[in-house]
Amino acid sequence: MKQENKIVALYPLTKFYLAIVLVVLDIIMPGILSKLVIFVIINIIAAMSGVWKIFIRRVKNSVGLLFLILLFIQTFFYPKGEVIFSVWIFNAKLEGLLFALKLGFTLMGAGGSLIWLFSVTQEKDFVLALEKSVMSAKASYVVLSTLQMVPVLKKKSQTIMNAQKARGVETEGNLFVRAKVFVPTIIPLVLSSIAGIEERALTLEARGFSSGIKPTHLYDIEKTESDKKVVILITIFGVLGIAGRVALWLI
User: Fold this and answer.
1) Which superkingdom does the taxonomy of this entry point to (predicted)?
2) What SS3 state is found at 220?
């Protein structure tokens, strides 16, 4: 993620505003094509941000899988509709396919917007921006801890797996082997996480986290004139999108 990219260098809440507008438009748009257009726009923004490869990989591994599962279930198990083809005892229904595509592209658009946001925004920048705007330091810390939870647990689990390998525990193989090693891995992970909570609490107290004094930051970020212009453009884009949706509803 390169900060010289103008989109990446935007203020975190500006990027958050763009992501929320895209999510709202994705949800309110009525048809499959309009939702697909929103997803294409998100892809274009990701490409302009220089993170398209990271973005599409994360989409594929998360909402992309959900989209495929949704497509399969709704197509073959939709309660009624026109049968377009059959596979053994399962009938693929047109209405189920259309419903799955509509719901799936809604999921892809909403999820893709948030995935793009955190592909171009560091967690610490996002939380710092929230703290400087409306959020208290304690709430900001909760948000930051939540955002960092999965990467931290993943790193710890990998460390534990490497330690188990060093002890001669078989950790790779078929499903049965992996299931057998699950308990020896999960128990140290849970215990280390609990111990880490106490360590973080002591660290925060040592730094005067609950002193009630307004904290200062060695690292800081500020809005620029570009952010103001981008916010205006995003607002215009959002208003036009909502107005278009209302117009379609009235027609």
Assistant:
1) Bacteria
2) coil
